[in-house]
Amino acid sequence: MSNKLTIGLFGFGVVGQGLHDIIRTKDLNLEIKKIAIKNPEKKRSLSPELFTTDASVILNDPEINTVVELINDTEAAFQIVSTALKNGKNVVSASKKMIALHLEELIHIQEEYGTSLLYEGAVCGSIPIIRNLEEYYDNELLYSVRGIFNGSSNYILSKIFNENLDYGTALKQAQDLGFAETDPISDVGGFDPKYKLVIAASHAYGIITRPEEVLNIGIQTLSSKDIQYAREKNYKIKLVPTALEFGERQVVLYVIPKLIHSADFLYNVENEYNGVIVQAAFADQQFFFGKGAGGHPTGSAVLSDIAALRYGYKYEYKKYRTNRGFVQSNDYTLNVYLRYDDESVIERLGFKEITERFYAPDFKYVIGKIELSNLIANQEFLNNDGVFIAEIVQ
Ligand code: HSE
After folding, report:
1. In terms of CB atoms within 10 Å, which of 107, 169, 268, 321 comes out highest?
2. What is the 49 CA–ligand 1 centroid distance (Å)?
3. Distance between CA atoms of 200 and 204, rounded to whole angstroms?
4. Is 21 helix (H, G, I), strand (E, B) or coil?
5. Domain Aspartate/homoserine dehydrogenase NAD-binding: where (predicted)?
6. Residue 293 pLDDT > 80, yes or no?
7. Which residues form the pocket of ligand 1, taking CB atoms under 6 Å from any ligand atom?
8. By the 8 A CB rule, do 327 and 243 touch?
9. For domain 5-118, which CATH number applies: 3.90.226.10, 3.40.50.11740, 3.40.50.720, 3.40.50.970?
10. Tell me, which fold does domain 140-291+325-392 have in CATH?
11. Using CA of residue 210, residue 212, residue 215, residue 219, what is the dihedral sign?
12. Which residues on adjacent β-strands are paired with residue 377?
């Protein structure tokens, strides 16, 4: 039998309202009893009695058995989620940064208090990738999980490539459509997809790592020269997080722009859509595709988690608990395209091998092999003007 859920909702922004819209249209045997908000002055579409600015009204209400946390303050989100779990409430959250930063602690809290935290909406919006990595790929050897995990940066790249929009206009559109984070550097700088990658890797390989341990290079230094290069060679540029097994149970995690050929599934993933390619030993390649940002798509994943709580669903973190021997390693070499201004950059980055060089007064690039550890050591430098780097598969 399914239990009636009485929900306390935190946050009534893009996703909170999206979820509310969906719930309103269905008879789901659930009730949103209270909605906690930060700003009581904002005009709301619902009855004022439904709202509170006091978190404890929800957290201490014994009737509320389910907390849905959809705010964009990382530390406040952690306090809400951990307190709710400790108070015996099950929780659904879409706060990717908070989950990536506190995952191990959140696993232990769930274990100690017997409560469940679900967060499908935190990774790739509407795409059901977490439950699939956790449940479906339990016995398969996963070679890699990679894709487009950020709707805003993909929207910007699509608008630049397909409609010749300039970067600033495309970013403004992504913000106006409610896709971007409060500080959009999180999207375009590759932080947001990195948090999602960290969460996905814990369910794919059982590895829990700190986001600071993972390289993220973004698209913020993309120039018209890079676009011209990509077009001439029939590539598109996408921002791609990768988790990949290599060597003896080593797993490498990184986020970097990638030059994508038309044969790649990710080539046709446009605008706010996300795509995840899972490469497994026996199933071979599988491709998940769906909207990665926006109120209704993310709200649909949140609702699916809420529905799963009715039946007592919990992530078992099977791969983490059984310790399958995977370790994170940066002992990995990437083949990259690097556009640069200053010749000293080549030496600074310590290329292992250079296979192609182009040199004109207004456009210089090299293609060659570089160790991931060198990219990590130069991460800040590579996110600044004067250089653009993208992985290029040979
Ligand atoms: N800013 C995020 C994105 C929202 O653009 O993908 C969804 O997590």
Report:
1. 107
2. 30
3. 6
4. helix
5. 11-120
6. yes
7. 125, 150-152, 179-181, 187, 192, 292-293
8. no
9. 3.40.50.720
10. Dihydrodipicolinate Reductase; domain 2 (3.30.360)
11. positive
12. none
Report which DSSP code applies to 350.
T
Query: How many Cβ atoms sit within 10 Å of the Cβ of residue 30?
Result: 20
CATH 3.40.50.720 range(s) for the chain read 5-118
Residues 6 or more apart whose CB falls under 8 angstroms from that of 283 comprise 140
Could you report the per-residue pLDDT of 316-375, keeping only the tens digit for each?
Answer: 999 999 988 999 999 999 999 999 999 999 999 999 999 999 999 999 999 999 999 999
Catalytic residue flag (residue 319): no
User: Distance between CA 89 and CA 69 in Å, rounded?
Assistant: 12
- Residue written as tokens 């909207």? 291
Contacts 24+ apart (CB under 8 A), 359-366: 362/225, 363/225, 363/339, 364/339, 364/340, 365/225, 365/229, 365/337, 365/338, 365/339, 365/340, 366/337, 366/338, 366/340
Helices (H), 73-190: 74-86, 96-113, 129-131, 151-163, 167-176, 185-188
**pLDDT score recorded for residue 2:** 61
Q: 253 by DSSP, 3-state: which? A: strand
Closest CA to 252 of 189, 317, 218, 207: 207
